[in-house]
Design a protein that fits this description.
The protein has about 210 residues and is mainly β. The protein is about 10% helix and about 55% strand. The protein contains 2 helices and 9 strands.
Length: about 210
């Protein structure tokens, strides 16, 4: 996956080197709604798979990453954006055993949910293209990832999942392109190195600009 990311970014630089004018107009605002793929979801899914523990089994479903963002063009070449992403993971633990306050062995099945959210500032540089419908860009993604965990276990000491997740600052790099079918509506592809996803696809809507 790392090699694929490097190849895609290299392709973006090649495209940029052969272009002439920017499709990002000063004063323009672009709104985006994307769905993305994250390795984090798969890591957690594998970590809490049926073979992960000897005392109980776990099943988990991971949703795509949902990204909502907006970019404002400071100039024809530079924009400053913000994005919010969220991803949910829901699962069931079966056959969990613990001793209650009466020293009785209790076996229970219960559900749990994990939600990973991320907020970020995204400065971007926009290359020019000879195609007036195409916008190619690269940028940085500086943000913070947050986790929310909940389970239905009656064991007050159960914290197998909650203790394993912590909020943290993230820094990554992004690159991608937007293609407009009309003056205002288009589709986009993003490649991201770092949290909170690797690739995403979605729709964009632009207003304003010179």
């Amino acid at each position: 996956m790392k090699k694929l990311s490097q190849l895609v970014l290299a392709a973006l630089f090649v495209i940029a080197g052969t272009t002439a004018k920017s499709q990002n107009l000063q004063g323009q605002t672009v709104f985006t709604l994307n769905a993305g793929y994250s390795l984090t979801g798969n890591v957690i899914k594998n970590a809490f798979s049926d073979d992960a523990f000897n005392t109980y089994t776990t099943s988990i479903k991971v949703s795509p990453v949902i990204i909502i963002g907006a970019d404002y063009a400071i100039s024809d070449k530079f924009s400053l954006g913000a994005a919010f992403t969220t991803q949910s993971m829901k699962g069931t633990i079966t056959g969990y055993e613990y001793f209650n306050d009466s020293d009785e062995l209790v076996t229970e099945n219960f559900d749990f949910t994990l939600r990973r959210s991320h907020i970020a500032l995204i400065p971007k540089f926009h290359f020019g293209t000879d195609n007036d419908k195409l916008d190619v860009y690269i940028g940085a993604r500086i943000g913070y990832v947050m986790w929310k965990y909940k389970d239905d276990s009656k064991d007050p000491d159960f914290d197998e999942l909650g203790s394993a997740i912590n909020g943290r600052v993230t820094v990554g790099f992004t690159g991608g392109m937007r293609y407009y079918f009309t003056d205002n509506i288009g589709a986009n592809f993003d490649l991201n190195l770092g949290a909170p996803y690797i690739v995403s696809l979605g729709l964009n809507f632009r207003i304003g600009g010179n």
